[in-house]
Design goal:
single chain, alpha+beta, four-stranded mixed beta sheet, two-stranded antiparallel ribbon, 8 strands, elongated
Length: about 140
């Protein structure tokens, strides 16, 4: 009986830590997808003389034809996503639009010169935060 109680206590302690570790791994996967999207955007810009794509659809069309496109698997839902366009001048917690949890988003401020790539947390429409700030990748 004592052994079962001890095992129960150990499970009660270990299970939350295991779940938290899984969530951290999934967020790392979203960040890796963000970096991949950034690499694709920069490759597109090299192909087009320094001009960035205005939308994910434009980016995907060109990148697919040149074989450097990668669809992103959402680690929270296992659904394949191509990235979400958000028409926002800056990436903040209030300008994320309708990006679902785990997805990668793409925001352009000026389609020829600037872009930002960001990812969403486990909850819908919440950006990944890094020390309290929105974690995003951009060309500036």
């Amino acid at each position: 009986m004592v052994v079962i109680v001890i095992i129960g206590i150990l499970v009660a302690i270990a299970l939350p830590n295991f779940i938290a570790a899984q969530d951290r791994a999934k967020l790392s996967s979203v960040k890796a997808n963000m970096h991949t999207m950034q690499t694709v955007a920069e490759t597109y810009a090299v192909d087009w003389g320094g001009v960035y794509a205005g939308t994910v659809a434009t980016l995907k069309t060109e990148a697919t034809s040149k074989s450097y496109w990668k669809d992103f698997k959402n680690p929270f839902t296992a659904i394949v996503d191509t990235g979400t366009d958000v028409s926002a001048n800056s990436v903040t917690t209030t300008t994320l639009g309708t990006v679902a949890s785990g997805n990668v988003g793409w925001s352009t401020t000026n389609t020829t010169t600037q872009y930002a790539v960001y990812g969403a947390e486990k909850s819908t429409n919440l950006p990944i935060l890094d020390k309290g700030n929105v974690f995003y990748l951009s060309n500036n």
